[in-house]
C-alpha cells in the first residue's frame, strides 16, 4: 500500500519537475535545465522518451532470458514471465515510438525519417507484434511456450545488427548520445538526475505491473479445468 | 507467376519516368522478399501437412534435417532471385549497373542470408496453426537488417561505387549469415522435436 | 555388445494433464515389453517418447550399447511402426525402403529390400506408388520400413491395425523372431496380440 503511494508521488514529482524546472541558456542555479537550441521547452519530452525506449529494450532482454529458462526447465511459469515481460516491452516500445515521432516532428520537421534509431525501435515494435501473433497461433501450451521462446532468441540475435551496424549504413539524425559508452557525462547534472529519476519511476511501475500480471496468470493457470484423472 | 505479376505492376507504375537508383534497388528487393515468402516455407509446411514430419524425425538427426532443408532453400532462393533479377533487367530499362561485382556478390549472399533466416522461421511456423500469414509477419523483422544492407549495396552497384568501398556492408552480410545459421542449429532441436 | 533400453522416471504432462508418471524399466536384448491401457491412457505417447520423437516432461530414455550411449543416433537403432506413421505416398514400396537407407547414410541393399517386400507380401507391388496401396498394404510396408535398417530396438504401436489374418500372422512371426535377439516393445489393447512378454506396463494405473 505504502509502496504504491510512494510510487505515485514519485512519478508525480518527476512529471512536475520535468515541466516546471526553468530552462536557461547558461544554467547557473542547480535546478535549472540547459536549453537545447531549437527545441527549448519541447525538449522536456526526453524525460519520457528515453526511459521508455530503454525500458522496452530491457523488457525485451528479460523476455528472452525467461524464454531461455523455459527451454531449459520446461516450467510454464517461466513462459508466463516471458510473455508478460513482452507485453510490457510492447507497451513501452509503443510509447517510445510515439514520443520519438513527436520529438522528430519538432526537431527535424517530420514524424518519421527512417533514421536508424527510429528504424530500430520500429523493428522492435514489429518483433513484439510478431511474437504475439505467434503466441496466438499455437494452441498447445508447451508448444506455444517453446516456439515463443525460440522466436525471442532469434530476434535477440538480430538486435545487435540494428543497434550497432545499421547506423553505419544509414545516416543518423539522432542527437549524439550525451552519455557515451565510456560513461563520461557531458550532460547537465539536473537533467541527468531527472532522467534517472524518470527511469527509476518507469522501472518501478513496470515491475509493479509485471508482478500483478504474473500473479494473475499464475491464478489462471491453476483455474483452467483439468481433465479427470490428471 | 508471382514474380512476373509484381514486376509487371512495377513497370506500369513507373511508366517511363526516371526513377532514382535507390527506389529501383528497393523495389527489386521487395519483389525478392515477397517471392521468398511464397516459396521458402513450403519445405517444412508440406512435411507437416503430409504427416511425414514424424517419419523424417525417425530417420535423421535434427542437424541433418536442418542442413537438408537449409540447402534446399538456398538453392530455391538463388534460383528464384536469379529469375527476378533477369526479369528486372529485361523489363526495366532504367535499371543499369555500373559495378557488376558488387551486384553479383550481393545477390549471392543475399540469397543465402534470405534462405538462412527463412528456414528457421519456416520451421517455427510449420508447427503453428495458421501458417499462411504468419510466415511473412515473423520473417520481416528478422530479415530487416539483411534487407537494409542489400538494398544499400544494390544502390551502390547502380551508382558505380568501387568494390573495395563496399567491404563494410559485405562484412555485415557475412556476420548476418553466420549468426542466423548458428542460431538455427542451436535452436532447431527444440522446434523440431515435439 | 548388448543393447539396452533404459527408461528412467518418465513423466508426461500435456495441457496440464498428467498422462503418466514414474515409468521406469531396463530392457536388454532378448526381452520384450507390452504397454497396455485404455484408449487415451498414453500408450502412443509413451512409445513416441521411447522412439525419441517426443520429449518427456521429466525423466529420460536412453539406448546403450554396452556402456556406450547411443541416444544421439537413435534413428539408426530404432524401428517404429504406428497407425499414425505416414510413409511417402509418391514413392513406391521399393523407393520408400531405399530412401530409408539413404537418409540414414547406410549402404543400399537391394537384396534385403526385395526380401523384406516379399516377406510382407508386397513383392508384386514393388514399383507402384504407396498412394495406391490399401490400408493393409500400407501397414505391411511400415513394417518393412521399420526393419530395413536392421534396428536392434523395435517399437510397435498397435501392430495389428488394418491387417487381415495373413498380415497378423506375419507380424506375429516377426515379433517372435525379433524378441530373440532384439528389444521389443509393443503397445496394444489386446494382450493376446503379443507373445508372452517379459515386462508389462499398464498405463491404467500409473497416474
Strand order of the largest sheet of chain C: 6-7-8-3-9
CATH topology of chain C: Rossmann fold
- Most residues in contact, chain pair and counts: A-B, 30 and 31 residues
Helix fraction bin of chain B: over 70%
The helix/strand series of chain C, from N terminus to C terminus, equals: EEEHEEHEHHHEHEE
Helix content of chain C: 25-40%
**Which structural class should the secondary elements of chain B be placed in?**
mainly alpha
Please tell me how large the radius of gyration of chain C is.
17 Å
- Span from first to last CA of chain B? 36 Å
Shape of chain C: globular
In the predicted model, the low-confidence regions of chain B spanning at least 5 consecutive residues are none
| Principal-axes shape call of chain B | globular
At CATH level 2, the architecture of chain C is 3-Layer(aba) Sandwich
Q: How many helices of chain C in DSSP terms?
A: 6
- Please compute the radius of gyration of chain B using only Cα atoms: 18 Å
Q: Which stretches of chain C are low in confidence, meaning pLDDT under 50 for 5 or more residues running?
A: none
Order of helices and strands of chain B: HHHHHHHH
- Mean pLDDT across the residues of chain B is 87
Oligomeric description of these chains: heterotrimer
The domain count of chain B comes to 1
CATH superfamily of chain C: P-loop containing nucleotide triphosphate hydrolases
In short:
Chain A is an all-alpha fold and 230 residues long. Chain A is 72% helix and 2% strand. Chain A contains six helices and two strands; from the N terminus they run αββααααα.
Layout of helices and strands:
The complex is a heterotrimer of chains A (230), B (194) and C (207).
Chain A: H1 2-20, E1 23-24, E2 33-34, H2 46-73, H3 76-108, H4 116-136, H5 141-169, H6 189-223
Parallel strand pairs in A: 1-2
Helix pairs in contact in A: 1-6, 2-3, 2-5, 2-6, 3-4, 3-5, 3-6, 4-5
Chain B: H1 2-14, H2 21-39, H3 42-50, H4 53-59, H5 62-91, H6 100-126, H7 131-159, H8 167-192
Helix pairs in contact in B: 1-2, 1-5, 2-5, 2-7, 3-6, 5-6, 6-7, 6-8, 7-8
Chain C: E1 3-14, E2 17-28, E3 31-36, H1 43-50, E4 58-65, E5 68-69, H2 74-77, E6 78-81, H3 93-103, H4 110-119, H5 135-147, E7 153-157, H6 165-181, E8 183-187, E9 199-202
Parallel strand pairs in C: 3-8, 3-9, 6-7, 7-8
Antiparallel strand pairs in C: 1-2, 1-4, 4-5
Amino acid at each position: 500500500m505504502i509502496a504504491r503511494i510512494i510510487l505515485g508521488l514519485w512519478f508525480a514529482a518527476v512529471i512536475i519537475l520535468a515541466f516546471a524546472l526553468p530552462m536557461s541558456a547558461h544554467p547557473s542555479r542547480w535546478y535549472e535545465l540547459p536549453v537545447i537550441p531549437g527545441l527549448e521547452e519541447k525538449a522536456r519530452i526526453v524525460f519520457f522518451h528515453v526511459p521508455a525506449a530503454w525500458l522496452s529494450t530491457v523488457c525485451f532482454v528479460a523476455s528472452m532470458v525467461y524464454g531461455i529458462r523455459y527451454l531449459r526447465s520446461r516450467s510454464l511459469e517461466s513462459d508466463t514471465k516471458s510473455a508478460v515481460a513482452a507485453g510490457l516491452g510492447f507497451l513501452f516500445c509503443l510509447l517510445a515510438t510515439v514520443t520519438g515521432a513527436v520529438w522528430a516532428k519538432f526537431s527535424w520537421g517530420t514524424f518519421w525519417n527512417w533514421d536508424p534509431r527510429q528504424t530500430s525501435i520500429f523493428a522492435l515494435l514489429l518483433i513484439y507484434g510478431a511474437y504475439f501473433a505467434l503466441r496466438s497461433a499455437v494452441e498447445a501450451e508447451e508448444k506455444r511456450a517453446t516456439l515463443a521462446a525460440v522466436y525471442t532468441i532469434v530476434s535477440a540475435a538480430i538486435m545487435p545488427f540494428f543497434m550497432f551496424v545499421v547506423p553505419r549504413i544509414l545516416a543518423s539524425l539522432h542527437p549524439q548520445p550525451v552519455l557515451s559508452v565510456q560513461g563520461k557525462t557531458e550532460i547537465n547534472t539536473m537533467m541527468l538526475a531527472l532522467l534517472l529519476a524518470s527511469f527509476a519511476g518507469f522501472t518501478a511501475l513496470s515491475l509493479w505491473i509485471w508482478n500483478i500480471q504474473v500473479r494473475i496468470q499464475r491464478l489462471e493457470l491453476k483455474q483452467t479445468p483439468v481433465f479427470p484423472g490428471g | 507467376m508471382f514474380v512476373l505479376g509484381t514486376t509487371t505492376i512495377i513497370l506500369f507504375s513507373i511508366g517511363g519516368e526516371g526513377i532514382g537508383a535507390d527506389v529501383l534497388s528497393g523495389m527489386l528487393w521487395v519483389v525478392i522478399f515477397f517471392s521468398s515468402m511464397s516459396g521458402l516455407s513450403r519445405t517444412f509446411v508440406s512435411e507437416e501437412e503430409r504427416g511425414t514430419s514424424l517419419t523424417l524425425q525417425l530417420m535423421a538427426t535434427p542437424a541433418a534435417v536442418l542442413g537438408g532443408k537449409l540447402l534446399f532453400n538456398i538453392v530455391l532462393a538463388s534460383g528464384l532471385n536469379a529469375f527476378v533479377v533477369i526479369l528486372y533487367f529485361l523489363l526495366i530499362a532504367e535499371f543499369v549497373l555500373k559495378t557488376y561485382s558488387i551486384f553479383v556478390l550481393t545477390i549471392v549472399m543475399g540469397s543465402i542470408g534470405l534462405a538462412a533466416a527463412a528456414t528457421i522461421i519456416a520451421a517455427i511456423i510449420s508447427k503453428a496453426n495458421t501458417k499462411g500469414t504468419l510466415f511473412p509477419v515473423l520473417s520481416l523483422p528478422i530479415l530487416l537488417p539483411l534487407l537494409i544492407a542489400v538494398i544499400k549495396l544494390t544502390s551502390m552497384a547502380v551508382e558505380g561505387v568501387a568494390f573495395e568501398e563496399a567491404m563494410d556492408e559485405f562484412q555485415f552480410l557475412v556476420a548476418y549469415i553466420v549468426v542466423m545459421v548458428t542460431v538455427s542449429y542451436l535452436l532447431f532441436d527444440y522446434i523440431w522435436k515435439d | 555388445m548388448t543393447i539396452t533400453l533404459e527408461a528412467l522416471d518418465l513423466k508426461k504432462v500435456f495441457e496440464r494433464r498428467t498422462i503418466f508418471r514414474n515409468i521406469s524399466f531396463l530392457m536388454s536384448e532378448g526381452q520384450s515389453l507390452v504397454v497396455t491401457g485404455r484408449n487415451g491412457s498414453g500408450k502412443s505417447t509413451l512409445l513416441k517418447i521411447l522412439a525419441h520423437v517426443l520429449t518427456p516432461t521429466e525423466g529420460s530414455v536412453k539406448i546403450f550399447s554396452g556402456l556406450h550411449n547411443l541416444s544421439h543416433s537413435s534413428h539408426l537403432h530404432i524401428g517404429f511402426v504406428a497407425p499414425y506413421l505416414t510413409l511417402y505416398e509418391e514413392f513406391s514400396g521399393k523407393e520408400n525402403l531405399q530412401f530409408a537407407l539413404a537418409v540414414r547414410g547406410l549402404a543400399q541393399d537391394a537384396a534385403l529390400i526385395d526380401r523384406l517386400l516379399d516377406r510382407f507380401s508386397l513383392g508384386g507391388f514393388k514399383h507402384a506408388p504407396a498412394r495406391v496401396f490399401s490400408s493393409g498394404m500400407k501397414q505391411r510396408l511400415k513394417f518393412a520400413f521399420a526393419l530395413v535398417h536392421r534396428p536392434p530396438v523395435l517399437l510397435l504401436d498397435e501392430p495389428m491395425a488394418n491387417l487381415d489374418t495373413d498380415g497378423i500372422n506375419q507380424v506375429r512371426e516377426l515379433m517372435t523372431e525379433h524378441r530373440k535377439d532384439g528389444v521389443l516393445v509393443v503397445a496394444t489393447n489386446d494382450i493376446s496380440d503379443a507373445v508372452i512378454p517379459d515386462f508389462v506396463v499398464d498405463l491404467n494405473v500409473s497416474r
